[in-house]
Amino acid sequence: MRKKLVVGNWKMNGSRAVNAQLLAGFKDSGPWNADVVVCVPFPYIAETALALTGSATAYGAQDCSAHEQGAFTGEVSSTMLADVGCRYVIVGHSERRAYHAESDQLVADKAKAALAHGVTPIVCVGETRSEREAGQTESVVKRQLAAVIHTLGHCCGEIVVAYEPVWAIGTGLTATPEQAQAVHAVLRAQLHAATDRASSMRILYGGSVKAENAAELFSQADIDGGLIGGASLKVGDFAAICLAAAH
Ligand code: PEP
Q: Could you give the CA distance from residue 223 to residue 12 in angstroms, rounded to a whole number?
């Protein structure tokens, strides 16, 4: 039985005052019988760590460099993330793939760098609307995951995968539980072919998850929790999703 995992992705939102309220409210609503993580903007990691002291909620970042250290202005290494207590980092979010031209190989290299420093990468994969309409969903997500499997080798059993159809992110459109499950089953099968740890690996669904649709999505056989954008910015909504994951 895989314990559910719910990850909040704050994206580029927040301020010191707003975050303090959000984290305090959230801390008061837990704990849940699920693993919960908030991935916050880099400047707020230290304050998040402080605000979550004594809580079971972990924290992480939304990206990391594929490099260890050196002349990479503006980048943040996974060594640094580990140094400030991050246990997770999102890599390959579709917004980074789209706006920063991140390739499958770069995403895989970031995942490798994270794992090397004890930070669990949450590797995002997902198809665009036009790719789905062209019947390419399976080939796209398998290609994205294959780069990671190839780069990590037997260590690929240590990652978290997040299936996020691009057309469902921030749009209010959600994949039906059946659509999501079908892709999760494909990803699980791909992992089974690569590692004997596949049945214990967590595959999250992301894309307009809300309190109202979370329980049904999370009840699917291969959906092990969610990667939550917009709804993670409201205490009540995020807490309700964490509760839905706890059943
Ligand atoms: C995300 O940013 O990963 C995401 C799933 O966003 P939203 O929940 O807002 O669709």
A: 26
- In 3-state terms the chain splits into helix, strand, coil percentages (rounded to 5) of 50, 15, 35
Verify whether ligand 1 is closer than 6 Å to residue 207 (CB atom): yes
Element (H, E) at 125: strand 120-125
Q: What is the pLDDT of residues 213-240, one digit of tens each?
A: 999 999 999 999 999 999 999 999 999 9
Cβ neighbours of residue 230 closer than 8 Å, sequence gap 6 or more: 170, 208
Could you identify the atom of ligand 1 that is nearest to the CA of residue 206?
A: 5
- Whether 170 is in the pocket of ligand 1, judged by its Cβ within 6 Å, is yes
Whole-structure pTM value? 0.97
Scan for tokens 């929790």, then name that residue: 225
Backbone angles phi, psi at 114, to 5 degrees: -60, -50
According to CATH, the topology of domain 5-245 is TIM Barrel (3.20.20)
161: its two tokens: 């995968």
